[in-house]
Specification:
Structural class: alpha/beta
Radius of gyration: 28 Å
Number of strands: 33
Distance between the termini: 19 Å
């Protein structure tokens, strides 16, 4: 189960405590706010002899409990001593779910929360407990941010408190005492720059500067210019006196846009919100945005909730990157959050990248957004030459398709090294991450937990990727053979092989454990995993080899082709244009596959349109809205039977999920090792997504309130429907 469902299961007893501590006159409990149809109770004047606020003595509080059956506000009395401090948006401490009987506290305790409203009265019939403490007078949860969090929670069938935890960073008391600098005057509007290469680019910037809200899906040209182009769009919104927000997939990309925007506008107009800044500095920058001292934000995923005032432009780069999807409940995606912000705040939206997702193509097809792309002549001039192993190469090298590095790749790397660095993209990290038996080809498994065996280097014994056990005397469980062979070759083994083939050329590696930001413009081989490719100084890489395309295209995933093309295009975009000698060689199992052909033509928008049409025919997202419901035993089936699903809902399943072997790593939304789960998919046509989310959330809340078995795991827009 995800963190949300685990907290929901643990919170069932909390609800019982709240109910038991409700008798009138007992005090010490919160009122359940927001219930319609009940007359307002006369407001209290004192509580246990302490005076309450004379004006608006009731505070409606969002408590920090991410439980769907407690997803509402609770009323508390405001002591007179806290009247000036207890403002909407501030953090408070309240007593939640605790009654006092005979001087002994039973259950519950003090928890954090946020005041969302001050009221003259409450519709709760009992006696309100007072606020225990105002933690800070800083209004960090303003009305706009609260409305956005509520919309995100409703869309993803989650709890509002969980979304607020994602949106509001932890408090740093010392930082709140620091004064913020006054907001600077808007910068001057920049020139179009690289946007002049796009027929609609200058018009998009003109609409931004005029205070309009254009919405565009931007197919960025290959090359190093996209950070400057994105920065110019942000600077144009800032020049119009409005706010600007850009969300990037990682800190390296955010740093490039940050530098480009600072070069255009100077200091003081925007902040960089990334984890690298540290919690204290990040909170300092976030407060500057919340207080209105800064109107521009460049950051990674968490910046999607940045409280930018008067938002004029929300931009997202590479929306297909998995890092844009939050792992914490309710697991929102940055693209959907920014779409909600653009609609609620009437802001412009820019979805950019070297590739186009099916979701972005749907926005264009429905007319909600316009395409922003260069013409074919400009694309051909900016793109490198892309080659693959085809019929002509087969005649010269009969083993070309079977070889991991056919002669075409060797020749391309050799010739390009005379002019600059060569990028080698390898889908897998490590040395030999997957092994099999040399004799019978059965997967090599650990004798202890049956996990996959791997090699960290050529001189070591195989070890288990799950439990870490070393197998120096490994024998195949099928045939008894003791000689493993490589099934998948990782980045470090590839670097070792290339080092032997090109002994006079330095070999650099970039991957999860050590990611390079840049490499110098001199001959070298750069072996990188997807997403970790460093930027080459100067004009870019002289060539790129995209190895083991079968590993990307062969994944059992709805998005396998789209993801393979995205990774290829992002790597190929770092290579020099064809006119400057830039060449890309893609090695895939079958050159005629649609993603390979889309790369050869550099046509990401065309691939996205075909992908969208195929999904529409099959009824797959994003044409339909979908939810995944999973859980142990019959939990998923019970939740679906209790839910009042839309009449047009199509329920697929439930079906048993594969049982994870003992010792395997735990995955969010998947059964623990050794436990049997079932999973069902529910899909509805466009326009019914909100009803589907509400039905599942209400059913989940009712089951948890009645403590009917274990909580189910609900995921709206699951990334994996296989």
């Amino acid at each position: 189960m995800s963190g949300e469902q685990e907290r929901q299961a643990r919170g069932s007893e909390q609800l019982a405590l709240i109910r038991e501590s409700a008798p009138a006159g007992k005090g010490g409990r919160a009122g359940e706010g927001g219930k319609a149809g009940k007359p307002a109770r006369a407001r209290p004047r004192t509580w246990r002899g302490a005076a309450l606020a004379d004006r608006l003595p009731v505070a409606r509080v969002l408590v920090d409990k991410g439980l769907v059956h407690l997803d509402r506000f609770f009323d508390y009395a405001v002591p007179a001593a806290m009247d000036d401090q207890a403002r909407p948006g501030v953090r408070v401490r309240v007593r939640f779910g605790a009654g006092e009987r005979e001087g002994r506290r039973e259950g519950g305790g003090l928890i954090n929360g946020f005041i969302v409203e001050r009221r003259a009265d409450s519709d709760f019939p009992g006696t309100l407990a007072p606020l225990a403490q105002v933690l800070s007078t800083e209004p960090v949860l303003g009305p706009g941010l609260l409305a956005l969090c509520r919309a995100v929670a409703d869309r993803y069938a989650g709890a509002l408190a969980d979304v607020v935890q994602l949106a509001v960073p932890p408090r740093m008391a010392r930082v709140e005492q620091e004064p913020s600098a006054p907001a600077p005057a808007p910068p001057a509007a920049p020139e179009p720059g690289g946007w002049a290469r796009y027929p609609r680019g200058p018009a998009f910037l003109a609409a931004l500067h005029g205070g309009e809200a254009p919405r565009a899906v931007w197919s960025a040209l290959p090359g190093p210019a996209w950070p400057d182009e994105l920065a110019r769009a942000l600077a144009t919104a800032l020049a119009a006196g409005r706010g600007a927000l850009a969300v990037l997939p990682d800190g390296r990309a955010a740093a490039r846009v940050d530098a480009a925007l600072r070069a255009l506008t100077g200091d003081g107009h925007h902040v960089l919100l990334t984890a690298e800044a540290g919690p204290e500095e990040r909170y300092r920058r976030w407060l500057a945005v919340s207080r209105g001292a800064v109107r521009g934000v460049v950051g990674t995923r968490a910046a999607m909730f940045a409280p930018v005032r008067d938002l004029g432009l929300a931009a997202l780069w590479d929306d297909a990157d998995s890092s844009h999807s939050d792992d914490h409940a309710p697991q929102p995606h940055a693209r959907e959050v920014l779409l909600l912000r653009a609609a609620q705040e009437r802001a412009a939206l820019l979805l950019g990248g070297h590739t186009v997702t099916a979701e972005a193509a749907q926005l264009v097809e429905t007319g909600w957004a316009r395409p922003l792309a260069a013409d074919r002549d400009t694309v051909r001039a900016a793109a490198p030459l892309v080659r693959t192993v085809g019929d002509a190469e087969d005649s010269r090298d009969p083993e070309a398709r079977a070889a991991r590095l056919p002669s075409l790749a060797w020749r391309t790397a050799r010739d390009a090294l005379a002019h600059g660095p060569v990028l080698v993209q390898v889908p897998r990290r490590g040395y030999l991450p997957r092994l099999s038996c040399q004799r019978c080809r059965a997967p090599a498994r650990c004798a202890r937990c049956h996990g996959p065996l791997a090699l960290e280097s050529g001189g070591e014994a195989p070890h288990c990727g799950w439990c870490g056990t070393t197998e120096p005397d490994w024998r195949c469980g099928e045939c008894g053979g003791n000689r493993p062979r490589a099934v998948v070759v990782g980045a470090r083994r590839t670097a070792e092989e290339l080092g032997r083939a090109f002994p006079a050329v330095p070999v650099r590696t970039s991957g999860r454990d050590h990611v390079l930001a840049t490499v110098p413009d001199r001959p070298s081989l750069v072996v990188a995993t997807p997403g970790a490719e460093p930027v080459a100084d100067g004009p870019g890489y002289a060539a790129a080899l995209l190895l083991d395309g079968w590993a990307l295209l062969g994944r059992r995933d709805l998005r396998a082709g789209e993801e393979a093309l995205r990774r290829w295009l992002n790597a190929a975009a770092l290579v020099r244009p064809h006119a400057e000698g830039g060449t890309v060689v893609v090695l895939a199992a079958e050159p005629t596959l649609t993603p390979v052909q889309s790369l050869l033509r550099w046509d990401p928008a065309g691939h996205a349109r075909r992908e969208l049409a195929e999904r529409a025919f099959l009824g797959f997202p994003p044409v339909s809205r979908m939810a995944a419901v999973s859980g142990p035993g019959e939990t998923a089936d019970q939740l679906l039977r209790a839910a009042r699903l839309p009449a047009e809902a199509d329920v697929l399943g439930p079906v048993p999920m594969p049982v994870a072997p003992a010792g395997s790593p735990r995955r969010t939304g998947h059964p623990p090792p050794g436990e049997q789960w079932q999973r069902a998919l529910v899909r509805v046509p466009p326009g019914s997504g909100a009803a589907l989310a509400a039905a599942l959330k209400n059913a989940q809340a009712a089951r948890l309130a009645r403590r009917e078995g274990r909580a189910a795991w609900v995921r709206i827009d699951p990334p994996d429907i296989g």
